[in-house]
Amino acid sequence: MEYVYAALLLHAAGKEINEENLRKVLEAAGVTPDEARIKALVAALEGVNIDEVIQKAAMPVAAPVAVAAAAPAAASGGAAEAAKEEEEKKEEVNEEEALAGLGALFG
C-alpha cells in the first residue's frame, strides 16, 4: 500500500510518477523499495488520469445524509424506516463500486 501512497503523494505534489521519484519517496519514508513493485506500479499508472479516477471514487457525504434525514420527515411509520434502509443499501453499493474502480487503477 505504501507504493500507492507514494504515487499519490507525487501526484499531489505535481511531480512525475516514475521509478526514480517513487524510489526516493519510499526511501524517505523508511521503506526498502522493491524494484519489481515500483516498475509494475509505474506501468499500471501509465496513461491513467489520476484526478479523474479520484473524482469517480470520491463519494459525496452530504447528499446521501440529507436524503436519508429528509425521508423520515416526509414519510410516516414503517415507510420511513424502509426508505432509510433502501438509501443505506444504495450507499453501500456505490461505495463498493468506487472501491472496485480504485482497485483496478492500482492493479
Automatic annotation (TrEMBL):
Keywords: Ribonucleoprotein, Ribosomal protein. GO terms for molecular function: structural constituent of ribosome. Transmembrane segments: none annotated. Residues 82-92 have a biased composition (Basic and acidic residues). Gene3D superfamilies: 1.10.10.1410. It comes from the Archaea. Signal peptide: none annotated. The keyword Chaperone does not apply. GO terms for biological process: translational elongation. PANTHER family: 60S ACIDIC RIBOSOMAL PROTEIN P1, LARGE RIBOSOMAL SUBUNIT PROTEIN P1. Belongs to the eukaryotic ribosomal protein P1/P2 family. Forms part of the ribosomal stalk, playing a central role in the interaction of the ribosome with GTP-bound translation factors. This is Large ribosomal subunit protein P1. It comes from Thermococcus waiotapuensis. The gene is rpl12p.
